[in-house]
């Protein structure tokens, strides 16, 4: 539902939902490119001021109709979570890489990724909070495809080497064991040659009201 000028509008019935998601994903991608352009720009100050004014106008146009509910969320028949607005994997969320996760027949997960200049923490390297966020999400996804969807209880991260941005990397994760509603998952981010940069272990807890709700087929 969206609220506009005192009216409530059900956009799902007002248009083609798939085309709308594609349009939003394109907006998300353009905004990612904008963010990196802002981070890297060396244009003159008057140009920066002019672009800022144009962006303020564009922001106002988008704010004309605002969503008041969370983005749609579903678990596919294979246990794969789909959440278009997610901060890590959501194609319509400019904060998201977006992380594109594949599941293997063994119910482990993998994602090829490249961080962006806007993820910089230490000069020239990726911020540790960003890599922890990627690990949190990927490990949570691995728990879900293993039939143990849950919320992060604890996440432990070991930073073994600095993480570069703008270079291809591989993130992988696998569920290792469960006890009741608690599940443990291991994961890592590595260079293409296998050199591990970041390792993580997470404990995911299935809330009581999720039990049996998100089981993969
Ligand atoms: C849909 C698919 C999504 C799929 C999603 C796709 C990937 C997304 C991944 C992103 C994940 C996130 O960022 S999630 C967002 C970050 N996480 C959160 O916001 C979680 C906030 N915390 C909570 O909501 C709650 O505390 C829960 C759900 C974690 C646990 O609450 P609860 O269910 O009431 O748990 P409770 O009965 O007290 O405890 C059950 C058992 O777990 C233990 N336990 C409880 N909390 C913790 C903890 N933090 N660390 C260690 N152990 C804990 C207890 O000691 C107990 O052990 P015993 O006595 O039985 O031995």
Q: Can you put this structure into words, describing what you see?
A:
The protein has a 6-stranded antiparallel β-sheet, covered by helices on one side. A 3-stranded antiparallel β-sheet has the order 2-1-3, with no helix packed on it. By secondary structure, it is α+β, with helices and mostly antiparallel strands. The protein is 29% helix and 28% strand. The chain is built from 4 helices and 11 strands, in the order ββαααβββββαββββ. The model is unreliable at 1-14 (pLDDT under 50). It has 2 domains: 2-67; 75-210, Hotdog Thioesterase (Thiol Ester Dehydrase, Chain A), CATH 3.10.129.10.
Question: Which strands sit side by side, in order, in the main sheet?
Answer: 6-7-9-10-11-8
Q: What Rg, in angstroms, do the CA atoms define? A: 20 Å
Count of domain modules: 2
Number of strands: 11
Helix fraction bin: 25-40%
User: Would you list the SSEs in sequence order as H and E?
Assistant: EEHHHEEEEEHEEEE
SS summary, helix count: 4
CATH superfamily of the largest domain: Hotdog Thioesterase
- Cα end-to-end separation: 31 Å
Label the structural class: alpha+beta
Main β-sheet description: 6 strands, antiparallel
